[in-house]
Design a protein that fits this description.
306 residues, mainly beta, twelve-stranded antiparallel beta barrel
Length: 306
């Protein structure tokens, strides 16, 4: 008889691994474990979450503002659906955040400016497919499938739904589209699960940035995740990412805005009932060359069903 997908799981919690599919990804520098996870097709996952961020961070952290600090409260609703595409497992994920932001900015003359923002942030849509190691299986067939190495690709689209003022430097929305093609590989080792992703963010122009045109070079992103699953169906993970590039150009004049940012964090998730789980994540800057020195704490509730 074939081994089960995760032999440490009881029959009741056979699909507990799917409960970590949705990540709390409000910002461009997110850490997203389990993006290319192996699950059954026709699965639905809905999630609601809260995130708190404190430090030098914007809703678009690829555009750093020096000497800027905020406290940001964020609510997000997400939905994911898996399906079969050419006999491969595919998925679509939609996330829409709402942000409450209170911050201060030190101007060039030394004056301290304060302000608040609240409203919808930019929506994110991820469409992905696992090309190798993850066929599109029904629930009854999936439970007997043995997962090994998975290779997947996805496209993340950031849609400018966020609140934006063309006469303000600090905004919740970005007033532009962004696209990130990404490739990811994951591998299961008994109780351990390892993942690595690489992608590039491409940006359209913001033609309403303080009456000027704001352009941005592409930003490279790398992520790594290592998770350990316990016999009681809880799991913990170590997360890290690295973002670099993204120089901005305002009306043809480039500035010293290229980023080189490394973040680390951890994730804890546990089932609370059949098809339900809670997930807690914390991450902080390990190295930054240009602002963006902040910490983030998020808590999300997820429910999955067929």
């Amino acid at each position: 008889m074939p081994r089960k997908v995760f032999p440490i799981l009881s029959k009741r919690h056979r699909f507990v691994v799917v409960l970590s599919l949705i990540s709390f990804s409000i910002y461009s520098q997110d850490l997203e474990p389990r993006v290319y996870a192996n699950v059954a097709k026709d699965l639905n996952v809905v999630a609601v979450g809260y995130g708190f961020m404190d430090g030098n961070v914007l809703t678009d952290p690829s555009l750093p503002v020096k000497d800027f600090t905020i406290q940001s409260h964020n609510l997000v609703g997400s939905y994911i659906r898996t399906f079969g595409l050419a006999n491969k497992l595919a998925r679509v994920q939609v996330s829409l955040p709402y942000t409450f932001m209170d911050g201060s900015l030190t101007a060039t003359n030394g004056a301290v400016l304060t302000g608040t923002r609240s409203g919808l942030a930019d929506m994110k849509v991820r469409l992905g497919i696992n090309l190798l190691g993850s066929p599109a299986l029904d629930k009854k067939d999936f439970k007997d499938f043995e997962q090994k190495t998975i290779l997947g690709v996805s496209l993340v689209t950031s849609i400018p739904t966020g609140k934006y003022y063309d006469d303000k430097k600090i905004n919740i929305g970005t007033n532009r589209w962004a696209f990130k093609p990404e490739i990811g590989v994951s591998r299961r080792f008994s109780h351990f699960y390892a993942e690595a992703y690489g992608g590039i963010w491409f940006y359209t122009n913001n033609n309403d940035f303080l009456g000027k045109k704001l352009e941005q070079k592409h930003t490279y992103s790398l992520q790594g995740h290592a998770s350990y699953y316990f016999k009681n169906n809880m799991w913990i993970g170590f997360n890290t990412n690295w973002f670099f590039g993204g120089k901005t150009i305002t009306d043809g004049v480039s500035d010293d805005s290229e980023i080189d940012n490394w973040r680390v964090g951890g994730t804890f998730a546990a089932p609370v009932a059949k098809g339900q789980s809670l997930k807690l994540q914390y991450h902080v800057g390990a190295y930054t060359n240009n602002g963006l020195n902040y910490y983030a704490l998020t808590l999300s509730y997820q429910y999955s069903f067929f």
